[in-house]
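Kindly inspect what follows.
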Amino acid sequence: MSDLTLFLGKFLRHGTAIASLAPSSRWLARATVSNIDWNRPNVVVELGAGTGPITRILAERAGPHSRVLVVERDPDFAAILRDRFRDQPALELIEGDARDLSAMLRDRGIARVDHVISGLPTPSLPRDVRRDMIRTVGEVLKPEGTFNQITEMPWVYRGLYRRLFDDVRFHFEPRNLPPGGVYFCRGVKLPVASS
């Protein structure tokens, strides 16, 4: 089964629980990680990797001193990712829910991360789920870190991200089908739960 067929089938069955009708293009995947300085060690988390177009770019660019944790809840997507990236030492696949990210990192001895890359349908998540997920991002992201959110609806959700983050920039990627882009966000505004 092709990635496109799998994505489309899941989108039709699960609607907004799947962020897209199709995997991200290589152009959108590259744009999504364009702000990461790979000349220094990074801890990067990818949420909602799907079939792995962004994961592939992360695997290509991550240096020997960087760690990439790929979190995917869907068992079919997780199986594909395990198969495709089994020989990538910088990558670790975690099958689980993004809201459990703090515990996942704690279990691996990681206190804070440099970047969170999101392929999740953040605007479509139920409000309480979105709040919990963004709060978790605030708990694990370094103060100078970024939350990079892909979108296939350019500029539509800028207001939402401005309510959630102090600083929001948008990069448009017209070569994606449909045209999409990336929100680069810093400074979570939601109150972060104390631990």
Notes: The CA atoms of residues 2 and 51 lie 10 Å apart. The domain at 3-188 is CATH 3.40.50.150 (Rossmann fold).
